[in-house]
């Protein structure tokens, strides 16, 4: 089929003053903030794989596939034509195209495959880039990446799976693992009655033999929110006589037959539409125990610790796509005798938006760097930092995307515009893997029980003292606030103040000076009172900030 240029001379008017289509660009090379932060925290070697991914994900073909995968969502097929139960989800070809691109560029495995500093930085940056092309497929990428941390607790089971994860390519058809070139892993934790309170789960596990770590079990129960149900296996929780335990349930059993997992329905979600989320029932479902019997939460939390990094990185990618779309539009659209980007109030809004993105990029890459470190201090920093990142950046994403959408006017609100899709996508990372209250209370527990984590954070913050008066005042106030002890009702307030301070510190230590100073003036100064973007009252270095976009 031949593609023709659209008609721009219609019967009643000429089509003018419209921006060209967004695309045909390298999503890494054109992102100054991400590139600087990834190189700083990951090392220069990350440029190669990230630039290759940026070119592929920013191509017209990949961006169109991302749109199509959401426009034509997955469909549940419970039975085959003969009445046999198959419990399968059928996807539009664009979904498979997005998955293949992601796995080809190792979004799911570069963090484990590269045995050098910065590997997890490369993963987080890659997931942010992948999210700009299609965010829904980053869910199976994230869970497959994070599953390695939990599977390593049970080497006798993991040995068959890890090579298919770390070295695997996308291989969608359902087959025994020995016949597959690559696999993806999902996670089923929550149930109707408890949600995040997994201790209230009711699914039971009965040993097929002696049981114990690596042993074979049959599971019976339900799971309420199961993302990526077409994965090859799922890490899941169920009770044994010793308590809540972790299991790996494959979709194909060792004897080559389908495992008994009943896919009840697909969720109709606000966003993340390309990704099939489902409700499942286990009925004598085969699974292997992973980790210690009765210690399932501790085992699967190793996986959650890594998926929380991806909720932060995924939010970063959503922010970037929305900001890039806004900047692209205002550079090409004219109103009131000026290009929109030359209008002072528009410049103020865009610069304010860019401050949040610059801070989020530096923050996310710093957190990811800690994932590859082995010192107790850095491990503590990763534990506390990722909770702060998920709490603040993921929550900031929805209002951020809304403002970017408004930069496009009414054209940004229609479904043909990527901003509409990304606005629907924006809330998911603030909810997935623990909503705001859960994360804020987790931060509070970390402050109380892990002094090394707090010490590592305070050391990072203290290093930036003396570089900006508003920062110094904010740091001192935060130090007093934490030192006085934090009540549960204040958990969100303290989490937000910590996240703001850490972002400011990282910019002051490593960021562009004009960006760092403007961020402190706009986000930390007691003289600024505005709530909306462009309304802070701070005098931002607008020209310097926008020159980086």
From TrEMBL:
Residue span(s) of domain Acyl-CoA oxidase/dehydrogenase middle: 187-284
Cited InterPro entries: Acyl-CoA_dehydrogenase-like, Acyl-CoA_DH_CS, Acyl-CoA_Oxase/DH_mid-dom, AcylCo_DH-like_C, AcylCo_DH/oxidase_C, AcylCoA_DH/oxidase_NM_dom_sf, AidB_N
Alphabetized SUPFAM superfamilies for the sequence: Acyl-CoA dehydrogenase C-terminal domain-like, Acyl-CoA dehydrogenase NM domain-like
Signal peptide: none
Annotated ranges, domain Adaptive response protein AidB N-terminal: 17-172
Acyl-CoA dehydrogenase/oxidase C-terminal domain boundaries: 294-446
Gene3D superfamilies named in the record: 2.40.110.20, 6.10.250.600, Butyryl-CoA Dehydrogenase, subunit A, domain 3
Key words of the record: FAD, Flavoprotein, Oxidoreductase
GO MF term set: acyl-CoA dehydrogenase activity
Cofactor(s) needed: FAD
Family the entry assigns: Belongs to the acyl-CoA dehydrogenase family.
Name by which UniProt lists this protein: Acyl-CoA dehydrogenase family protein
């Amino acid at each position: 089929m031949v593609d023709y240029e659209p008609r721009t001379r219609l019967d009643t008017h000429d089509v003018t003053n419209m921006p060209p289509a967004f695309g045909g660009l390298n999503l890494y090379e054109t992102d100054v903030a991400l590139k600087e932060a990834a190189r700083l925290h990951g090392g220069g070697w990350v440029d190669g794989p990230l630039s290759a991914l940026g070119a592929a994900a920013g191509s017209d073909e990949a961006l169109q596939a991302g749109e199509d995968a959401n426009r034509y969502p997955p469909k549940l097929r419970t039975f085959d034509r003969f009445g046999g139960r198959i419990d399968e989800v059928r996807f539009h070809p664009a979904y498979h195209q997005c998955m293949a691109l992601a796995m080809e560029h190792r979004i799911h495995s570069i963090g484990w495959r590269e045995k050098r500093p910065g590997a997890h930085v490369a993963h987080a940056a890659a997931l942010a880039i992948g999210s700009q092309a299609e965010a829904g497929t980053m869910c199976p990428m994230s869970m497959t990446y994070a599953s390695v941390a939990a599977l390593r607790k049970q080497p006798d089971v993991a040995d068959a799976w890890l090579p298919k994860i770390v070295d695997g390519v996308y291989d969608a058809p359902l087959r025994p693992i020995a016949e597959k070139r690559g696999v993806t892993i999902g996670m089923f934790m929550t149930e109707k009655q408890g949600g995040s309170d997994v201790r209230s789960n009711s699914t039971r596990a009965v040993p097929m033999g002696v049981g114990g770590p690596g042993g074979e079990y049959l599971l019976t129960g339900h799971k309420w929110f199961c993302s990526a149900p077409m994965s090859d296996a799922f890490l899941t929780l169920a009770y044994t006589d010793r308590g809540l335990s972790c299991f790996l349930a494959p979709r194909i059993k060792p004897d080559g037959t389908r495992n008994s997992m009943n896919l009840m329905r697909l969720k109709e979600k606000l966003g993340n539409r390309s990704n099939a989320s489902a409700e499942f029932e286990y009925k004598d479902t085969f699974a292997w125990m992973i980790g210690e019997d009765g210690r399932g939460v501790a085992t699967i939390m190793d996986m959650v610790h890594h998926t929380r990094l991806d909720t932060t990185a995924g939010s970063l990618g959503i922010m970037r796509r929305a900001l890039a779309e806004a900047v692209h539009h205002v550079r090409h659209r004219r109103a009131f005798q000026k290009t929109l980007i030359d209008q002072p109030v528009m410049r103020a809004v865009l610069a304010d938006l860019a401050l949040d993105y610059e801070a989020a990029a530096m923050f996310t890459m710093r957190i990811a760097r800690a994932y590859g470190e082995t010192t107790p201090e850095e491990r503590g920093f990763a534990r506390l930092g990722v909770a702060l990142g998920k709490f603040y950046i993921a929550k900031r994403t929805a209002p951020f995307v809304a403002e970017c959408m408004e930069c496009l006017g009414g054209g940004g609100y229609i479904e043909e515009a990527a901003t509409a899709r990304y606005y629907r996508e924006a809330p998911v990372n603030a909810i997935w893997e623990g909503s705001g209250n859960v994360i804020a209370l987790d931060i509070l527990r970390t402050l109380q029980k892990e002094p090394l984590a707090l010490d590592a954070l305070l050391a990072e913050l203290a290093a930036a003292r003396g570089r900006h008066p508003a920062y110094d005042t904010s740091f001192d106030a935060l130090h007093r606030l934490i030192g006085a002890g934090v009540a549960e009702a204040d958990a969100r307030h303290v989490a937000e103040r910590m996240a703001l301070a850490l972002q400011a510190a990282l910019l002051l230590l490593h960021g562009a000076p004009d960006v760092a100073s403007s961020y402190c003036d706009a986000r930390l100064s007691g003289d600024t009172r505005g709530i909306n973007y462009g309304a802070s009252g701070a005098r931002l270095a607008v020209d310097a900030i926008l020159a980086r976009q």
